[in-house]
Write a structure and sequence with these properties.
The chain is an alpha/beta fold and about 270 residues long. It contains ten helices and eleven strands. Helix 5 links the parallel strand 5 and strand 6. The chain is elongated, with a radius of gyration of 19 Å.
Length: about 270
């Protein structure tokens, strides 16, 4: 059975990766896609934008128009754009949404949870299978090594990425906190700048690097006085995120309303 999808931000780098993956899969039909008015790419065939043959589907500004006939909405844009799109999809055929957008505030998290009372939403800061395997290892390491080991999470992305730390880094931080039996909000250390206090025991620190065209690198450092353990993941191509998002779309297409994570899609505990 072919699943109909609409892609938000189809002219963007992640949007184009989604178009390429979906158009070659055979399991999906792309029925719509959006683009920002100021990007100057409205009315352009999304297949051409992705460097493929024309698909007969052009970008539009209105999410509701793009989602006409879609079963699943796939969105890797910005928090305001994502929430606006979800609010506009009421009464359409869309029954699930895959959200890879990061940088939500607490208030926006609540809005997303409210939208999940109407449709199934799979939300993740990273749709890579390898990253979720990494999160499991981080959780175990944090549990076994204890509070005497400092935890620092270093993430590196391309210069265009605006939110920091990345959604993936925060997910890894949450995994570390869970391993230590607590909440990340209680263990997260403030950003360092200038002369500060000594590092407190048991805290989880973050550092963000923005440079060049780096797709995504995450390193979780466990450091004791005499040894260091580093768990890491490097994304070489945005296709890994697109493949994971499409796997989530296939999974979510027949699920009841609710807010889900990739651990649900992959069957991880």
């Amino acid at each position: 059975m072919t699943l109909s999808i609409a892609i938000a931000g189809a002219a963007g780098r992640m949007g184009r990766a989604l178009v390429r993956a979906a158009s070659t899969s055979g399991a999906f039909q792309i029925v719509g896609g959006t683009a920002r008015i100021e990007a100057g790419r409205l009315g352009v065939d999304i297949g051409v934008l992705a460097g493929r043959e024309p698909l007969g589907v052009v970008t539009v500004a209105d999410p509701r128009e793009a989602a006409r006939g879609a079963d699943v909405w796939v969105d890797f844009t910005t928090p305001p754009a994502t929430l606006s799109a979800l609010a506009s999809l009421g009464g359409t055929a869309v029954r699930a949404a895959i959200i890879g957008t990061t940088g939500f505030t607490s208030a926006q998290d609540a809005d997303l949870a409210n939208a999940a009372t109407r449709i199934a939403i799979v939300r993740s800061g990273n749709f890579s299978l390898g990253v979720h395997a990494l999160a499991g290892l981080v959780r175990q390491a944090a549990q076994k090594l204890g509070a005497g080991w400092d935890i620092e999470i270093v993430e590196t992305h391309h210069w265009r990425k605006r939110d920091a730390p990345s959604g993936t880094a925060l997910m890894l931080g949450e995994a570390a906190a869970q391993g230590r039996g607590g909440a990340l909000e209680q263990m997260r250390l403030p950003a360092r700048d200038g002369l500060g206090d000594e590092r407190p025991e048991g805290g989880i620190g973050f550092a963000s690097i923005r440079a060049g065209g780096i797709v995504g690198e995450h390193n979780v450092i466990f450091a004791a006085e005499r040894e260091i353990v580093t768990l890491s993941h490097q994304a070489l191509d945005r296709a890994v995120f697109a493949d994971g998002a499409l796997a989530a779309a296939a999974w979510a297409g027949d699920k009841p309303p609710g807010l889900y994570a990739m651990k649900d899609v992959l069957g991880f505990q």
